[in-house]
Structure formats: structure tokens, C-alpha cells
Amino acid sequence: MQRLDLISLKAPFWADSGHGQTLWGHFLKSPELENLGQNFEVDLPDGDRLFCFYHPGHTDTVVSLYHGLSGDVRADYMQRTAMVCQKLGHTVVLVNHRGAGQGLHQARYPYHSGRAEDVSEVLKVLRQKFPGKKQIAIGYSMSGCIVLCLGGGFRGDTKPDGIITVNAPLNLGRGARILGTGINRIYDVRFVHRLRQNIEEKYRRGLIAERYEIPWWSTIYDLDRIYTAPAAGFKDREDYYESCSARHYLHKVDVPTYMLTAADDPFVKVQDYLEAKLPTNVSLHIENRGGHLGYLAKQETPLGSHRWLDYYLHEAIRALSSQI
């Protein structure tokens, strides 16, 4: 597996911590696509539907992007990565998970960290839509867990040719518990608020029959017990966490894979990465600074911005495309 020759991130003084990287990485304005691109839909076997968009490129590579928890295709990191792909000349596909973005009113069942079968269905469509082209899947945060599960053979039968993950939670139970503690409640409250709104909207529109009562003080750990696990067909919250944690499948990932995380991520513990059993086709890169999807650099990167994550993805996509 080709290792990336990268310039290390040096953080600005005002973002020299995990929380600083995470919060400023989210609040600082990012470039946006002029439009989401051409739309297409993916029908899932259980009747739900995914809403996707793509920008065609001229190379032999298609890069599909999958957002994090409570996000959608408009997320800043999704938009910026799409521009990186355009710069490389690749076709780029932005995918809304079921019930996210434009698919808010088209899903009865929840997306979650183990929905590898959904990504598999997207890849089936992409292989038909772009026959003979290489398929790279990029998963951010929760979606990083999803694509790693797929790469390791958990659910779904169509894999990408290459995988890139950013700050994927490898141990779902640990991550959910940590989110509900200390300053991390800032992120937890935001996640729960947005997910609660989504669930209530499903009920109002008659997509789900049960009105799940989720108290305003609930954490993600609570929400997974009250809603995610039962609505997705798991025995309970612990069954969901154990069966869908990517750490159980990493040793089975059999496609070229680049994994990125930060040692100071507030709720995805780097220890899970250090303890992971990785095959030789998986390359792990750990930055000391970066927070959760932040990666703000003091100096400009070779791409001409202060977004080190965009630089990393540019190099990882370029390397994968030459190897697969």
C-alpha cells in the first residue's frame, strides 16, 4: 500500500486544540459548489430511497461522498471535497443517506453507522451508470464506519475499489458515551436536536406509526436506545453498537484504504486506531491536531488554502486512483 508523502499540519494558535479545530473547522466559511449537480435516485430493497447528485468528470475514476451524522450533501466538507475531485477531473457523487437532505420525506427507516447495504446499493447503481470506471468511496465520521464495515464484508455485496475515511468512529459504544460527557455535550446536543426534528417530521407525515418520545435533555446514547436500535431492527442499543462497530471488520477490509484521524478528536478516541488490527492494504495516518473534521492549518497547503483536510484528500484520492 503506497504511503502518502504529506506535509504535517501546524495549527494556528486560535485552533491549537481538538475543540478549537472542531468548532472553527465548522464555523469558518468554506467554498461552495455553484450547484449540487445532476440528480438521480437510488431505490432501496426495503422501499426507502436515496437522493444523490453528481458532477461528471473526464477521468476513469468516480468518487462518491457520504456525510456524517445529522448532515447531508450540503455539508461544508462534502462541498469542498467535491471541488477537490473536480480539480482532479474525476466524476464526483454526493450521497444523502436515507431521510437526509432532499430525502427527508422519503424514508421510513433510519440511517445509522451500520448501513453498509445502502452504500452497496449506491455503488451498484454507479457501476451501471459509469461502467468500467474505478469507484472510490469517501466516508466522513459516521459514514467512515459504514464504508469500513462494507469493505470488511458486513452487509452489502458491492464494494468500492478503494476507500478513504475521515475520523471514523471505530467503537460506537465508546464514542456515544464520550459524546454525552463534558464539553462534548456541545456536539451531542446539536446532533440530538437535528435528529429529533427529523424523527418528528417522519411521524407528522405518516412515515412512521410510532411517536418516539425523546426528551430534550437526551444524549445520542439515549437516542440510540429509544429510537435508532428499535427502529432499525436491532435487539437493543448494545446489539447495534457491537454489530455495527467497524473495529470488528477492519482486519477483513480487502480493498486499498486510506484512514485519517486526529489524536485530539474530542469523541473519536485515537486509542481505537492504535489498537486496531489493520491489513497491509490499509494505510492509517494520524495527525496530532485536527479535531473532528477540522484540520485547520496555520500555513497554506499546496492547494493554496488553510484546509489541511482538503490537501490530504487530494493526495489520497490521487494515490488511490493510481493503485486500483
Give your account of this protein's structure:
- This protein has ten helices and eight strands.
- The termini are close together.
- It has helices at 18-27, 76-88, 116-129, 142-151, 172-179, 185-204, 220-231, 237-244, 270-274, 308-323, and strands at residues 38-43, 49-55, 61-66, 91-95, 134-140, 162-166, 257-262, 282-287.
- It is globular and about 50 Å long.
- It has a single domain (13-171, 244-323), classed as Rossmann fold (3-Layer(aba) Sandwich), CATH 3.40.50.
- Helix 2 packs across helix 10 (308-323), helix 3 packs across helix 4 (142-151) and helix 7 (220-231) packs across helix 8 (237-244).
CATH architecture: 3-Layer(aba) Sandwich
Number of strands: 8
- Spatially, the strands of the biggest sheet line up as 1-2-4-3-5-6-7-8
Shape: globular
